[in-house]
Amino acid sequence: MLAAAWALLAAAFLSALLLLRRAPAPRPGGAALVISGLFQDLIRYGKTKRGCGQAPGWLRLLQVPKRWFTHFYVVSVLWNGFLLICLFQAEFLGESLPSWIQDMHHALGRDSQSKDMDSEHFSALLVLLLLWLHSCRRLAECLWTSVFSSGVIHIVQYCFGLGYYIAVGSTVLCQVPTNVRNGKKLSVQICWYHIIGVTMYIWASLHQHRCLTILANLRKSRSGKVVSLSHSVPFGDWFESVSCPHYFAELLIYVSMAITLGIHNVTWWCVVMERWRKLGLFCLKKRPRGELINVDKYLKGGLVPRGWIQALLGGASQRDKRQRAENDDAKEVPQEYEEKLLYRADG
Q1: Structural domain count of the chain
Q2: 149 found inside a domain
Q3: Torsion 20-25-28-30 (CA) sign
Q4: What CA–CA distance (Å, rounded) separates 309 from 312?
Q5: In this predicted model, what pLDDT tens digit does every residue of 136-168 receive, in sequence order?
Q6: Structural contact between residues 145 and 224, judged by C-beta atoms closer than 8 angstroms
Q7: Cα-based angle 283, 284, 289 (whole degrees, multiple of 5)
C-alpha cells in the first residue's frame, strides 16, 4: 500500500513536469491563462517563478516566504526524533510502541506474521537515524548558513512539505513488522550494504553542505555579512561538474538510505523515485540562461558532465545547445563573470 502511494505521488509529479514543459502558451484574457497561472504558481517556488509574470493579488494571498522551508526541518527533527526514540526503546529495551502508532503501523505496514529478521530491524533503525541526522543538519543550515531571498512558495507546497517528512519517517517505521520484537532485544547484525549506504550518505552529505555554503557565501562579504540577495555564478566543489549539485546530493542521500535498507526494499525506492521527480520538477529552469550559457564553455568540464544528469536536474535543452552554438561568437562573457574566471584560472 505504501509503495503504491509513493509511486502514485511520483507519477503525479512526473505528469506535472510533462505538462509544464509541453503545454502551449495560453491565450491572453482567457480562463486557460488563469488556470495556467495557478498551476505555475502551485508547482514553482523561489527564482523558478521568474518568467511567469506578475501573479494577481488573490494568488499572492496563497504564497508564503521561502524561508519557511525551515519549518519542514523543525517538524522532521521533532517527529522523526520521536519515532527514533520509540523504535529504539522497542528494539533494545523490549518496550511496546504507543497504541496509536501500532494502529497506524498495522494499517500501513507489514503483517505481524512476516518473517522476522534482525538485519531488517537494524536497517530500519539505522535509516531512521540517518533521516533524523539529515533533518538536523538541514535545520542548522537553514538557521545559520543559508541566505534566503524574498522568494515565495505556494501554501499547498508548504503544507505538502510539512506532511512529507512525517510520511517519510512513518514509512521507515513501517518497514518492520507491527509487533516489532515481541519483547526480544535486537541482535545487531551489520551487513555489507549498511557500510556502503552509510559511507555514501556521509559523502553526499558533506558535498551538499559544501555546495550550500558556497551558495550562501555568494551573498555574503568576507566578514560574513549579507550584502546581496541576487544570484551569481558559483564556483568550487561539485559546481565545477554538476548542475544543481545540492539537489543532486539530496537525491544521492535518499539513494544511500535505499541501499542501507538492503537495496531490495521496493517501498523506499518508490520514495527515491518521488524525490527524483520532485527535485527534477523544482530544478526546472533553476539555472539561469543567457549569460550563463556563455560562461558554461569556460568552466572546467562544463556545468553537466553527463546527459542523464542534465536531463534529471533540469540542464540545458537541445534548444539551449543550438542557441549556445549560434550565440557563442555573438556575445561576450559579462565583466563580473570574466573577472571570476580569470581569478579562477590564475588561482
Answers
A1: 1
A2: yes
A3: negative
A4: 5
A5: 999 999 999 988 887 888 888 899 999 999 999
A6: no
A7: 105
Rounded to whole angstroms, the maximal C-alpha distance in the chain is: 73
16 domain-assigned:
no
- Joined grid coordinates for residue 92: 533494545
Q: Which burial class, exposed, middle or buried, applies to 26 when counting CB atoms under 10 A from its CB (0-12, 13-18, 19+)?
A: middle
The residue segments making up the domain with residue 111 are 65-189
Over residues 235-257, the pLDDT tens digits come to 889 988 887 888 899 999 999 99
* Least confident interval from 40-44, 159-163, 335-339: 335-339
* N-terminal to C-terminal alpha carbon distance within the chain: 55
What's the CA gap between 236 and 260, in Å, rounded?
29
- Indicate yes or no: pTM above 0.90: no
Exposed (0-12), middle (13-18) or buried (19+): which is 101, by Cβ within 10 Å?
A: buried
Is position 116 within any domain?
yes
Cβ neighbors of 102 (< 8 A, separation 6 or more) are 96, 178
Residue 123 lies in a domain: yes
More confident residue, 152 or 340: 152
Cell of 249: 546530493
Q: How many CB atoms lie under 10 A from the CB of residue 56?
A: 12
**177 SS3 class:** strand
What does residue 86 show for φ and ψ, rounded to 5 degrees? -60, -45
